[in-house]
Write a structure and sequence with these properties.
It is a single chain. Helix content is 39%, strand content 0%. The chain is mostly helical. Helix 5 packs across helix 6. The chain starts with 39 loop residues before the first helix and ends in a 12-residue tail after the last helix.
């Protein structure tokens, strides 16, 4: 099991509409963070960037030379996406809904958690059964999906 955390700029928010100030790590900042409008859904953006980095071994903004170039890319370019065709359509769609530039269109954590394929894909539902790794592979690579589909649209 892998647990990721970055509490360098953590602060408690009272509800999903709470806003916070802070800078965060540039590569993981959501577009709205540059306007001081960071919300809980901003962390969903950061999660997707982290998943891309873990899956492909490189942050999608790693090749930019300056902080200004990274900021411009986040604000002006389409959101990053998985570059390899090896990833399952469900994983690609999961990344897509997490990286919606319009924060109103970006899925929140409860909506993402309610996608049953996501739960099975991460192995949360089956860790007790010792099948977590198998389900993780199913979600990422689309191996032996048995007709089950996530609904990210």
């Amino acid at each position: 099991m892998v647990k990721l955390a970055d509490f360098g700029l953590a602060e408690k928010l009272n509800h999903s509409g709470s806003k916070r100030e802070g800078y965060g790590t540039l590569w993981y900042k959501a577009p709205e963070a540059f306007n001081g409008e960071t919300q809980l859904k901003s962390d969903i953006w950061a999660l997707a960037i982290t998943l891309i980095e873990m899956a492909e071994g490189k942050n999608p903004y790693a090749d930019f030379k300056s902080s200004k170039d990274v900021m411009d890319a986040i604000l002006q370019n389409p959101p990053p996406a998985l570059t390899s065709s090896q990833w399952s359509p469900d994983f690609v769609d999961f990344i897509r809904v997490c990286l919606a530039k319009d924060i109103q269109e970006r899925w929140d954590a409860p909506k993402l958690i309610n996608v049953s394929c996501f739960l099975l894909g991460l192995g949360i539902a089956s860790l007790r059964e010792g099948r977590g790794e198998e389900n993780w592979e199913r979600f990422l690579l689309g191996v032996d999906q048995g007709g089950a589909q996530c609904h990210f649209r």
